[in-house]
Amino acid sequence: MNEVIHILLADDDEDDRLFFKDAFKEIKVKTVVHIVNDGVELMNHLLKEDITLPHILFLDLNMPRKSGIECLTEIKKIPHLKEIPISIYSTSASDEDIEETFVKGANVYIKKPSDFSTLKKILTQVITVNWQYHTSGLNRDTFLLSI
Amino acid sequence: MNFRKIFSSSVFLKSIFIISISILIFISSISYKHSVSLNDSSKWLTHSYKVHLELEQLITNLKSAESGQHGFIITQDTVFLTPYNTAKKEINISFSNLKKILADNKKQVSNLDFLNSLTTSRLKLLELALNLSSEKPFNKVLLGETMLLGNEVMLKIDKRVDQMIDLEMQYLKERRAKYENEISFTPIGTLFILLFSLLVFIFSYYKMNKDLLNLTKSNKELLIKTESFNHAEEIGGFSSWQWDLKTNKLIYSKNNYKLLGYEPEAFMPTLENFFDLIHPDDKDIILENRKKILNTNLSTNINFRIIRKDGSIRHWVSMSKLLIDSNSLKIRIGINRDITEQYLNNIALEEKNIALERGNKELATFNHAASHDLQEPLRKIQIFISRIVESKTSNLSETDTEYFARIQSAANRMRVLIDDLLLFSRTNKAEKVFEKTDLNILLENATQELAQVIEEKNAVLEAAELPKLNVIPFQIQQLFINLIGNSLKYSKKDITPVIKINCKKIMGWDEPTLKLDAAKIYYKISVKDNGLGFEQQYAESIFTLFQRLHQDSEYSGTGIGLSICKKIVENHNGFISAEGKPGKGATFNIWLPV
Q: Are B65 and B125 in contact (CB under 8 A)?
């Protein structure tokens, strides 16, 4: 865990981007956080040739231009991107959204918490999971991450 | 059945008719024969009489010739020769007559021939005697001998004539006997035949009368049936028609004219004038159907529009089937039905459905707005507050900290409120999938959800065995969560909260105060606690949305939980009620149908 963890966030909400960035500043893990403002920007970024692919992608669902679900579907179709662990990061936790993103291959579903310390706890937990190991035991009941 | 009876009776009547005609022919032929034989017999009578007369005449003439000869011989006066000469001529006439009459009887002909020769010799002898007497002097002896011989011949003639008359009489007798024999049979035979035909006629009269009565009765029944059918057509808004496929003749029922907007029998129905009444866009449907009707024996069912006499457009459905009968009858019989009202109702219903769907969509949009758009700013407020409160760098006064704590509490409450409201609206709209579910498992799940609170409050849960019921599982689980959660929330602080869950099977009529279905089986599930309770007067209002009994912030709920309970029970066609006593506890009763 001494390596730097590359984290990518796609979220259109400025406040949420701020909380996200602040949370990682306070977490005692070496991370590089890259942030894009919506789905179109996300896909453009991922398809650039000279980037380092993130270790984990946090994806908001409700974004203008291209929604999180659309991005998820596209990413899972692109061979060199489909192995990136994806964490859904959304305000709503409706059954339909959870079901759909699970079926489409997201690894974990985070409902944006309503206080800062919980946010830090959740993010820490997500980035310290060994996703390669975790994926094999994936099931619907543990998909929605709750602290 | 009736048809068969009448048909067989017509065969019967035909045979009666034929029998009667043959009897009449038989009777008239017999009568004819009788009159012919009667005629015959009278002819024969005349014949005999004529023979008799001619023979008598013959004898008389011979006698008169004889007496004339005698007179001449005695007086030698030629005056006496006149009857003699006349008699000779008459005798010849008589013979020629007799020859004619007796020509067909050989025996009489030979008799006549013999008589003729006798008469000739007699006349010769007479002449000889005349000649002898006129000689002077005459030979007295020869004359006497000649006259004696003449007398002998005369006797022979008499005898022969008598023989002939006797024979003729004998013939007459025989014929009369034969005729009488024939005639004597006839009256009995005729009487018998007449009686028989009388019987036949009486029987056929009886039969015809009976048939006529049956026919009148069937006619009456048919009339009643036709009328009641007309009545049914008028009330039911349908009509009937017949199409003879052989003659192409159409017959409409009264109501068919009315459905077309005409008076009954207002026109002669034809295929063409019906076609003219079809809506232009639907004419193809009719043509297609006619083709089908002519080529198949299948029943058909089509929908089309017609334009009435007054120009209004009506929607019809027409059903027809083929009627084939042993008498090579081939008729399509059909029913038309005016379905305009249903059609318009359907359209109205569809429009309402569309409006309803639109409403549902709007509700879904609202739900999304509530869940996402309302929660988002609230969540941010909460995070910002938590950052300020947790921040080590900010220097908040004691009052500020207190205020922030209150803001945080208010924001939390608002979040719970939004969550509960969402839950309530989901209870309304979520698809209602009923499954046979073990309620014990649902209760177990509910208890697990509440495990933390139960532990904190040290509460005791006593649950009886619950049944398996056809329910919407997640809703019943929510019901248990809300009811037990409610009991836990309003528990007393100084004693151990005890929540008892009981279950009883009852019949609908056991609870007359509720509007239960009397003949149905229900499960009455009660959740009883030993908490704060409430005044019985609020038993109804606690189920109302946003209704709260406790002002104390410690017990503040959203006022939605019990409303959700009520909604869930109603979704299951059940009932819920509450009983309470302040300070003693509350009991919630639920009735769920099997």
A: no
Kindly identify which residue of chain B lies nearest to residue A22, measuring between CA atoms: B387
Q: What is the pLDDT of residues A118-128, one digit of tens each?
A: 888 888 888 88
- Cα separation, B306 vs B273, whole angstroms: 12
Q: Which residues of B touch A114 (CB under 8 A)?
A: 378-379, 382-383, 386, 415
Number of domains chain A is built from = 1
Same domain, B440 and B401: no
Where in the sequence is the domain holding A54, given as residue range(s)? 5-145
Q: For residue B278, what is the DSSP state?
A: B
DSSP state of B555: G
Residue at B210: amino acid letter: K
Select the residue of B372, B378, B386 nearest A92 (Cβ to Cβ): B372
Chain B closest CA to A111's CA: distance in Å? 11
Alpha-carbon distance values, B44 to A31, B50, B172, B412 (Å):
163, 10, 7, 152
pLDDT for B50: 86
Nearest CB among A15, A62, A114 relative to B372 is that of A62
**Structure confidence at residue B28 (pLDDT):** 84
Residues B172 and B297 in one domain: no
> What ipTM was predicted for this assembly?
0.81
Is position B220 within any domain?
Answer: no
Q: Return the residue in A21, A25, A114, A121 with the most chain B beta carbons within 10 A, the one to mutate for interface testing.
A: A114
Is A62–B371 a contact, with Cβ atoms under 8 angstroms apart? Answer: no
Between CA B410 and CA B422 the distance in angstroms is 18
Give the C-alpha separation, B65 to B62, whole Å.
5
Domain co-membership, B566 together with B445: yes
| Range(s) of the domain holding residue B19 | 2-205
Same domain, B68 and B175: yes
B209 lies within 8 A of chain A by CB: no
Instruction: Report cis status (omega within 30 of 0) of the bond before B280.
Output: no
> Does A62 sit within 8 Å of B383, measured CB to CB?
no
Q: Look up the CATH number of the domain holding residue B448.
A: 3.30.565.10
B390 interface with A at CB cutoff 8 Å: yes
- CATH code (residue A103): 3.40.50.2300
The rounded Cα A11 to chain-centroid distance in angstroms is 10
In this structure, the answer to whether residues B192 and B271 fall within a common structural domain is no
Q: Which residues of chain B have pLDDT under 70?
A: 1-10, 183-186, 368, 371-372, 393-394, 427-431, 548-557
φ, ψ dihedrals at B415, nearest 5°? -65, -45
Q: Are the beta carbons of A112 and A93 closer than 8 angstroms? A: no
- DSSP-based three-state secondary structure for B237: coil
Contacts of B372 in chain A (CB under 8 A): 62, 91-92
Predicted pLDDT of residue B1? 42
The residue behind tokens 């609870």 is B511
> A140 or B264, which is more confident?
B264
In this prediction, residue B304 carries a pLDDT of: 92
Question: How many domains does chain B divide into?
Answer: 4
Distance CA B261, CA B311 (A): 9
Q: Which of A115, A119, A122, A123 to mutate to test the interface with B (most CBs of B within 10 A)?
A: A115
